[in-house]
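Ops channel
N.P.: pipeline sanity check, posting one input/output pair.
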């Protein structure tokens, strides 16, 4: 693999930002218009995606998991740095597909690629994206701003990631598999809603139960979730089936706290922040035991 040839053939065509200097330098100028945040996520084959997953969908997922973090902070994605550790025996057509998927979603989420790195590796395919975001208020909406008595909201259905992964492993519904491979994250417009209303916010990546507990702990509160209020990928009244959708992760929707008398456009109330530590669950007024596993641990 001649890295310079592949960079010019597949990566340079995606780079249009003036600060990138056409990838002819070792650094790029980062745009700054108001408070700027930065996030980075890495996807490794067989850990974060399956070896059989088409690489264009892997590229889309790479962009989306990063954009989800930025949007959940009440910010709009702006610019990205891409790092690819490509297997030494990797096929050029597969590399082309990967870059097509990345390019497709850079365009979808209005992100400018400004540089990065490409190396060969004897290990698994490893992808890292560093993404900047422009805050829509005077800084990011942290996890730590919630107050006991405030309501918890989410802006999408929970469970598609876990159901889709199961389908991908067992040869299930193509529509379900697609939900896992290319997650439906919060739209860019949600960043403005979060910036306006949220006191605390994070994206749901490792499972609703685990991430709700994390937001509560960061805010110095406990969490009470009403499971019947959670919008599920597959609606159910069975507690085990509900929990099974709230644990696996890969949902990439925003979880926020806000004042209890507030109606949040595009968001559904699912519980409250409460005094004291811990996670409490109920279903139609009846307490539910908290499962031993709350989410996906890396």
């Amino acid at each position: 693999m001649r890295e310079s040839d592949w960079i010019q053939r597949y990566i340079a065509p995606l780079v249009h930002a003036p600060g990138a200097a056409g990838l002819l330098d070792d650094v790029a100028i980062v745009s700054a218009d108001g408070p700027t945040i930065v996030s980075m996520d890495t996807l490794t084959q067989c850990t974060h995606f399956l070896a059989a997953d088409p690489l264009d969908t892997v590229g889309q997922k790479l962009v989306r998991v990063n954009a989800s973090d930025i949007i959940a902070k009440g910010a709009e994605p702006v610019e990205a740095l891409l790092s690819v550790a490509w297997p030494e025996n990797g096929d050029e057509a597969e590399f082309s597909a990967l870059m097509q998927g990345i390019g497709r979603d850079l365009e979808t989420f209005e992100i400018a690629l400004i540089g990065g790195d490409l190396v060969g590796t004897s290990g698994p395919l490893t992808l890292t994206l560093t993404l900047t975001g422009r805050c829509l208020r005077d800084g990011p909406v942290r996890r730590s701003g919630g107050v006991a008595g405030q309501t918890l909201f989410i802006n999408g259905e929970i469970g598609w990631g876990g159901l889709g992964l199961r389908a991908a492993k067992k040869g299930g519904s193509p529509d379900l598999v697609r939900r896992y491979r290319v997650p439906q994250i919060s739209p860019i417009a949600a960043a403005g809603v979060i910036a306006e209303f949220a006191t605390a916010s994070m994206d749901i990546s490792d499972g609703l139960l685990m991430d709700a507990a994390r937001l509560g702990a960061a805010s110095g509160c406990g969490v009470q979730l009403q499971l019947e209020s959670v919008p599920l990928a597959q609606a159910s009244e069975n507690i085990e089936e509900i929990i099974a959708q709230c644990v696996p992760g890969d949902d990439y929707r925003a979880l926020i706290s806000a004042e209890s008398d507030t109606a949040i456009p595009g968001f559904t109330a699912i519980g409250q922040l409460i005094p004291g530590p811990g996670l409490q669950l109920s279903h139609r007024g009846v307490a539910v035991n908290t499962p031993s596993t709350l989410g996906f641990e890396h």
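N.P.: looks fine end to end. DSSP finds eight helices and eleven strands in the chain.
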